[in-house]
Amino acid sequence: MFRNIxxxxxxxxxxxxxxxxAQDNAQRTRDLVASLDKTKYxxxxxxNISVEVFVDIKNEPVVRLDRGEYSGIYEADGYKLxxxxxxxxxxxxxxxxxxxxxxxxxxxxxxNAKIDGALISGTKVYDNGSExxxxxxxxxxxxxxxxxxxxxxxxxxxxxxGFVQTANDTNAGWTNRVFLEKK
Length: 183
What we know:
By secondary structure, this protein is of the alpha+beta class. The chain has one domain (2-182). It is 19% helix and 56% strand. It contains one helix and ten strands; from the N terminus they run H-E-E-E-E-E-E-E-E-E-E. The chain has an eight-stranded antiparallel beta barrel.
């Protein structure tokens, strides 16, 4: 009898742990997608001249049933990721990053990467041997801009991968939203 209770308790614990991890990844995906969004509206008036600027960037996570469809080359100015994904969600890749500190581009390889839903996580290993955790999300990104929310002149939707890059040095104190479009 005691053995049955222990087996049942263990089964409940294991199944609930898997459920918690799944919830954690879903929440992490939502948080990362929200951190990539941006809305800005500024209006300045000076001596009968008015200047208005509006920018609105919204992201939606993209989940592919065939995880191999995430494979490809993702690029933006100063960034590149050549990603290869197996059907079970394991991923490898290489590319280069630029940093806000003005340093040169640094090449990296992606190690221990895996995809869960729209979230990819792993470690970037740079040529100089340094490592940095990597977490990104596959998204459809809609960018709208114009003079104000009612006068939008540009409305573009792109598919790619987005992440938040932070300074390696905690004293530098900068972050950068990065979106790499799939080519």
